[in-house]
Amino acid sequence: MQQNKSITEFILFGLTQDPKRQKMVFILFLIFYIGTVVGNLLIIVAIKFSPALGSPMYFFLFYLSLTDACFSTSIAPRLIIDALFAKKVISYNECMTQIFALHLFGCMEIFVLILMAGDRYVAICKPLHYQTIMRQQVCIMLIILSWIGSFIHSISQIALVLKLPFCGPNLIDHYCCDLQPLLKLACMDTYVINLLLVSNSGALCLSGFLLLIISYFVILHSLRNHSAEGRKKALSTCTSHITVVALSFGPCIFIYTRPPTTFPMDKMVTVFYTIGTPFLNPLIYTLRNAEVKNAIKKLWSIKITSENK
């Protein structure tokens, strides 16, 4: 990336400056990150190689798991490595790249969750037309449009940040590069830029959340006309989706839909949605979904059988 700034690197404050706590950060988040990658890869492999998981719902779950793994990878490895050093230096280009990746995969997660809600709406409210509406070509096109929309969102964020002059100081009071902490370091009035950033990220989070809440309200309302067994199965699936929506959107709305100010709890809220949520999502979808659990067990048993031959 071309830069016309006097500052070529930033120093990250991190989660803590205490050496003992930094060791705890290293161990704890290394475990979380490994669990995130393994859990999401298990779901990706199970959906990819299991014929039983060929429905559109699992097609979208595949991309949610892929997005979660990439989203966490854009933040967690840097946090883990930085915990080993007293001075946490990140170059200007690395900082911009991290912001781009954070918003690309964060936005993609929002779009995939909306697509999953749409899939459940069609399956439950319009079951006779499900195969026609949610055919493979439509699902692929929706995912492509989601990637394009995420890329446009992320580029628009970076385009605003790249215009900011940074002439010192260069200490970011955070463990990663994000928009709000970075705006505080700019050598200019950032009020208008902050409004543009909030109107982009904040509006995306809030409108996506409201759309999902309305969708699931309609879905749950329509379950009155289903059989007891159908209601139980649909409720189990929707409960998992609603839980993930709450975990994903709550912190996102808190961070990106407010005036240009920072709070002491910002770091922990960011930790929750950048590292905690991608770790919890595979657990939520596997523990509450018998089809995914059975597919993983079947693939595992096939692997063991092939190794024993």
TrEMBL record:
SUPFAM superfamilies: Family A G protein-coupled receptor-like. The keyword Transferase does not apply. It comes from the Eukaryota. It is found in: Membrane. It is a multi-pass membrane protein. Residues 39-285 form the G-protein coupled receptors family 1 profile domain. The chain crosses the membrane at residues 24-47, 59-80, 100-117, 138-162, 201-223, 235-256, 268-287. Keywords: G-protein coupled receptor, Membrane, Olfaction, Receptor, Sensory transduction, Transducer, Transmembrane, Transmembrane helix. One of its GO terms (cellular component) is plasma membrane. The keyword Transmembrane helix applies. One of its GO terms (molecular function) is G protein-coupled receptor activity. This is Olfactory receptor 4C11-like. The lineage of its organism: Eukaryota, Metazoa, Chordata, Craniata, Vertebrata. The gene is LOC102841210.
